[in-house]
Amino acid sequence: METKDLLKKVRKIEIKTRRLSDHIFSGEYHTSFKGRGMTFSEVRQYQYGDDIRAIDWNVTARYNEAHVKVFEEERELTMMLMVDISGSESFGTKNQLKSEIVTEIAATMAFSATQNNDKIGLILFSDQIELYIPPKKGKSHVLRIIRELIEFQPKSNKTDLSQALKFLSGTQKKKAIVFVISDFMVNDDYEKTLKIASKKHDVTGIRVFDIREEKIPNIGMVEMEDAETGEILVVDTSSKKARMNYEKHYQEKVNYFKDIFSKCGSGTVNTRVDESYVTKLLSYFKSR
Fold it and tell me: How far apart (Å, rounded) are the C-alpha atoms in residues 222 and 182?
């Protein structure tokens, strides 16, 4: 992509998503996530009304008098955006590709974090880590993230979410607000790595999908290509059994996403490319 065209795209996304983050998401993001992390401050003598769960038994035993640990809110948080850039994201039938919606959501969340003076980092993944940008603050940093979301070309079309979550846990030692943005049409079992990541971080899965992925219309014999493997199959869509098998396979992937995220104590958002992701995200933030 020419530099001039790239800058135009970046500017267009900045204008749209910054307006959303400034006027809609900023307050909701602050309410939902600010101050959820706590850091140790000091130890002091126990006072009537203190939570007994905060008692420091080692110090209490040393001085033979009850002492409690005092914590304070972490005012500065870190947001990590984990974005799926595999082949299946380059699909769309309603004016926009899934990848374009993914970029808008990621940019909106990044600007919301910036409004609260938080750090933002980025992990672009397929079945490997395609790009890692460590967390930093500032508008220029956010604009770099948006540029990468627009123009980065992955080396692989396949997906491995488990590897991406493992990388997150290995690199991000401090508690972070993590948004995993993907269609979650993956073949790997990511329960174990999600469980590990969710114990340390506040993880939310944002599933972006297209209406044509849910069901196959009855249009006769059709050539279909797997965007991740390149395999081409001829499918008889007039066959009720073929349509039912496809829908069953699709729904299994969706149910796995919902069940595993719920089991690991992580949140989920589902938004179709022709729906308002603004409404979906606001509803999610308010429900936290």
Answer: 26
